[in-house]
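Posting this for the archive.
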Amino acid sequence: MTSPRLVTATVSALAAVLLLAGCTTGPGAGAGQTTSDPSSGPGTSEEFDEMEGTILDEGRSFAVVTWGSSTCIPQVDEVSADGQTVTVSLVDSDADEVCTADMTQRASLGTLPEGVDPTQDITLNVTYGELRDDVDLAGDAAFTATPGSPTEYTPSAGWFDDSSLVLLTWGSSGCPPVVDSIEGSGNTGTVTFATDPERMCTMDMAPRGTILAFDDDAIDDEDFTLTLVGDSLDGTVQVRG
């Protein structure tokens, strides 16, 4: 059996604030991220322009994954749909923000427009500055919700490649999950979050996106179950995609 691989990650959260009951994120909801393993990064500079994505929250929302500074995460600005084609624009949250010089994957979160069927394949036409890319998302007949329906604020996760996923959790935007370790073998994995009772957290309820990267030689992404440990997130998530 392949030994589990540990990956240390740093997390930042979106700034969007949600009401505590009966609402979903709007198209402009922001995103959080963790750094993935640098050894699995693109081999050429052109590949840094490529985008990936996944469907989350039982079919209500999506994530667009881009490469760039870990401290300057693009925000979803506008979203519209024509059938199963969804047009998405990403913007920098603050043009004057000073960004770190690292290069990592970031997850920008948004909600799918009403009328889009998450059980069928979806194409995202994404614009981010001068970058343009089409991101194909695989529909899943197992999704239990439709775009526009109220979220249940439960964790969800979706693959955006063979060994990397976006984990969506809900909680304070001021206290995003901080990954302590991650391990995986076969079709199961465990992510442990650091717990800091001294953190001062805002009293909002926001979606936080965390990128988790596994060793693709160690895991099988079909019927994959992810166990969450720590930071009041204990439970299991069936990873889609």
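The radius of gyration is 17 Å. Residues 92 and 157 are 24 Å apart (CA to CA).
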